[in-house]
Design a protein that fits this description.
The complex is a heterodimer of chains A (107) and B (120). Chain A is mainly beta. Chain A has no helices and eleven strands. Chain B is 0% helix and 52% strand. Chain B contains no helices and eleven strands. In chain B, the strands form two sheets. In chain B, strands 2, 4, 5, 6, 9, 10 and 11 form a seven-stranded mixed β-sheet that branches. The chains are: A mainly beta (107), B mainly beta (120).
């Protein structure tokens, strides 16, 4: 089974910062990776699919890159609404798998 | 509007079983694959299962204890969980797969979740 590892687990940042989160797969998943944002008490929100395609309605400050085993989610200028936990999801092969999450908190 | 609504959660004794329901609206659940994902209190997301047409997939750590099924006439998907344990306590979400053919594009629509608590 494919395992997903995210880093860092927690990230402290201020409004306006450029933030990068990394997700690594235990084997190649081509570009079959999605990113999600989750706030406490809410369902995850779909941000990016196919590693770099932005879902409709998602602000352009979010971007994704990577292929194979290493992927990144970048927030170009962190906004107050962006403080949340972010997860990657590999969907190349079942069983699908999430990364363990990265909490972006206020510095 | 495309929506998913889970139900069936509650307090269950260890060793018991539960059937969770996922009601789809705004789209045909027979056209899209549906996944189940759970989140234990204070923990991350765990992928549990996917049903795509008649094909079913399960995470290894729950295989043998869960069964996913669908009733296309009712636009419903179900998750049956047996031999419940304390560590099954979680919010259980159903989510729709974006896309109907290769390449799929992840999970785009999520329900609000239903809470399962396993305790005596």
């Amino acid at each position: 089974d494919i395992q997903m590892t995210q880093s860092p687990s927690t990230l402290s940042a201020t409004v306006g910062d450029r933030v990068t989160i990394t997700c690594r797969a235990s084997q190649s998943i081509s570009r079959w990776l999605a990113w999600y944002q989750q706030k406490p008490g809410e369902a995850p929100k779909f941000l990016i699919y196919e590693a770099s395609s932005l879902e409709g309605g998602v602000p352009s400050r979010f971007s994704g890159s990577g292929s194979g085993t290493e992927f990144t989610l970048t927030i170009s200028s962190l906004q107050p609404d962006d403080f949340a936990t972010y997860y990657c999801l590999q969907y190349q092969d079942a069983p699908w798998a999430f990364g363990q999450g990265t909490k972006v908190e206020i510095k | 509007e495309v929506q998913l609504l889970e139900s069936g959660g509650g307090l269950v004794q260890p060793g018991g079983s539960l059937r969770l329901s996922c009601a789809a609206s705004g789209f045909s659940s027979s056209t899209y694959a549906i996944c189940w994902v759970r989140q234990a209190p204070g923990k991350g997301l765990e992928w549990l299962s996917k049903i795509s047409g008649g094909t079913k997939y399960y995470a290894d750590f729950v295989k043998g204890r869960i069964t996913v099924s669908r009733d296309d006439s009712k636009n419903m998907v179900y998750l049956h969980i047996n031999s419940l344990r304390a560590d099954d306590t979680a919010v259980y979400y159903c989510a729709k797969v974006k896309g109907t053919a290769f390449p799929l594009k992840g999970l785009d629509v999520w329900g609000q979740g239903t809470t399962v608590t396993v305790s005596s």
